[in-house]
Design brief:
With 380 residues, the chain is of the alpha/beta class. Helices cover 42% and strands 19% of the residues. The strands form three sheets. It has a six-stranded mixed beta sheet, sandwiched between helices. Strands 2-1-12-13-14 form a five-stranded parallel beta sheet. The protein has a three-stranded antiparallel beta sheet with strand order 3-4-5, covered by helices on one side.
């Protein structure tokens, strides 16, 4: 693969200085003819005369620096002009349609929504998403209750550059820098009050604390079979460490971000009701999608939601439209905050009730297919 072929696969970045430098490299790399042919075929959109004049004037300033460019510009063949202008703006993908910038932010839940029945991202979904991201500029990310310890491996083949909304909005994970952003911390007094409620019901939760870019998950006492399986599946991650041997929940300089538990649904429901009645926090209680007899309880700082996180992210990336996908109760606030709320076919009735549309099940690559159709409809 030649240098020109490599750079022609880049996503569009309208940075004249960057692409002007690349244009010089192309011409100086003895690939002028190849550059002319490819750019002439790819330059399918017309620019205004003002833009032509601006570019040519900008280029003329560099002529004393590069006799090779001057020699080729003296050629009456205007195709040389087109290759330079194409390099300085953007390359068009191989399907000859110009790669567009999208203003829609697509956000999907993971379990039961984007992931299949085996809690994996299907090869078809990966291929579709990567095509939409790299070729059509789709803005895609996920919003999940999971932590980076499992989100990063699941999405390692997806080429999105946006932060992941993790822990139901308690933080964002910047995969490029491997850091937690916008961390929502639970007040220590509220943390102690919640732990006391658990203890009155004979239960012990996991307390997740930020320790640099790593999460420390503290647990006291014996664990249930489901909790042991939960820990076993997540051991060894560079992003999470379980601390299970402490005799009691001790004060820590690391801020708590999440208080999490899994147990019998009826037993855990009593904890949930007391917590929401007596402490200022954001609590989500729902059935495990893999075992309806098992309940999952997540407790965060007051105001922590996927909805708040995706609104913040949309503002940061300049998106003017949000399309969100979900399946369970902890997705409802996010769906209500979106411009377009989409439920998968296997979603619980409460989610379908707030959705604008219901698509196929999570086992049929439905999220990726919807995004593909939506981009076509929006003309992005």
């Amino acid at each position: 693969m030649t240098f020109l072929q490599k750079i022609s696969q880049f996503r569009p970045i309208f940075n004249p200085n960057l692409w002007f430098s690349l244009g010089i490299l192309v011409l100086m790399a003895n690939e002028v003819e190849a550059a002319v042919v490819v750019a002439h075929r790819r330059c399918t959109t017309r620019r205004t005369n003002r833009k032509y004049i601006w570019f040519f004037s900008h280029l003329a300033l560099t002529l004393p620096l590069c006799g090779e460019i001057r020699r080729h510009l003296n050629n009456k063949n205007k195709r040389v002009y087109f290759v330079l202008f194409s390099v300085c703006t953007n390359f068009v993908p191989s399907n000859h349609s110009r790669m567009a910038r999208t203003t829609t932010l697509y956000v999907s839940d993971l379990d039961g929504t984007l992931l299949d029945a085996n809690s994996q991202l299907s090869p078809e979904s990966i291929a579709t998403l990567n095509h939409l991201i790299t070729r059509q500029g789709a803005l895609f990310t996920v919003a999940t209750a999971r932590t980076p310890a499992t989100v990063v491996p699941l999405l390692q083949q997806v080429r999105t550059t946006l932060p992941f909304v993790v822990m139901a909005g308690a933080a964002m994970w910047d995969n490029a820098s491997r850091t937690l952003l916008h961390v929502q911390k639970i007040d220590p007094e509220i943390e102690r009050a919640i732990v006391a409620i658990y203890e009155r019901h004979g239960l012990q939760p996991f307390i997740y604390r930020q320790h640099g870019h790593v999460l420390h998950a503290h647990h006291v006492g014996a664990m249930s079979a489901s909790e042991e399986a939960f820990v076993a599946q997540r051991q060894g991650s560079p992003y999470k460490r379980f601390l299970l041997d402490a005799p009691a929940y001790e004060p820590s300089p690391d801020p708590a971000m999440l208080i999490f538990s899994m147990n019998d649904y009826g037993r855990l429901e009593q904890v949930y009701r007391e917590v929401v009645a007596t402490t200022p926090c954001e609590a989500m209680f729902y059935h495990d999608i893999f075992d309806p007899h098992e309940g999952l309880l997540e407790i965060y700082r007051k105001g922590t939601t996927k909805a708040a996180a995706i609104r913040r992210l949309a503002q940061e990336v300049g998106a003017t439209r949000i399309v969100a996908f979900g399946d369970n109760r902890n997705d409802i606030a996010m769906l209500q905050a979106a411009d377009v709320a989409v439920a998968v076919e296997n979603a619980v009735p409460e989610v379908k009730a707030v959705a604008h549309s219901v698509i196929g099940p999570n086992t049929a690559h439905s999220v990726a297919r919807y995004i593909e159709r939506d981009l076509e409809t929006q003309g992005e």
